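Notebook entry, structure prediction.
Reason for the run: the old model in the group folder had no record of what sequence produced it. Starting over properly, with the input documented here first.
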Amino acid sequence: MRTSEVLYYGWRIVKWKLGAKSPILAAVKLTYKCNLNCLHCPWVKMKSSEISLSEWIDIIQAMYDEGVRVIVFEGGEPTLFDGLKELVDFSNSLRMRTVVVTNGTVDLKGLNPDLLIASIDGPKEIHDTIRGDGVYEQVLKTLSKYDKRKMSLTTVNKINYKHLSDMLAEVEKYVDGFAFTLMYNYNKADKISLNKAEMKNAYKIIKGFDSHYDILNSVETLHTEKWECKPWLMLFGTPSGSLTNECFVKMVPGEADCSSCFLSCYKEIVQLSSGDLNSWYKINKHLFGSQV
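New structure, fully documented this time:
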């Protein structure tokens, strides 16, 4: 982490503790289009117009001016948006930290985010059950060709939570670390989302990996059941260019159930805002590429 960033984030934490409500991270869905149809994903069925590259550049500049310093490009499948590379490069030029979340089936040549995150939901049979035949091998092939910082993201559900150790053993040589989030009960995921007992079991399993693998999730987020969601810490962007501080779960048709939400993206950013040292260490190591 750059010295200027240490000072900047320290200043932001002080402001948050004094009552300021300002975003630090933006999650931008450039498109809802995707070349897969995963069992749990609600986004692929959603429809939206898409704004142009130049319009996104203006929005990113405005987000930076508002205080956003980490931007996550996702979808759908963000690599299907014509202009992803240019948006990453522009964000890098602002010295924002950049993350691309992909299903790992599309060529990543030329992409230069600070961190690439590829979705991997289990060993081969499990992953392909969730995401489609042949996808697992395709993802590993893509990751083997990508020589920059990369990690896997696993959406934990009834199908895969007992198979996570097999996945880590298989995937370890392809990535620099692992991240986990518990599946939210979207309309199409209700049959495979975890119940409360399974959630506790999954957390115990993931915590057990921390001493053997590089895990992005901080210790606190892996056992805290009751937590204060602070959606104002994030900006959520849709393909049409609209921005909101509302949790992106509420963007999916249907009634949002906040009591069953354990999405790591929100839990982790809440821990960061409180100054949690373990959370800062994990983010610093994986996103900023530093042990310090």
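Summary: The chain has a mean pLDDT of 88.
The old model has been moved to the deprecated folder.
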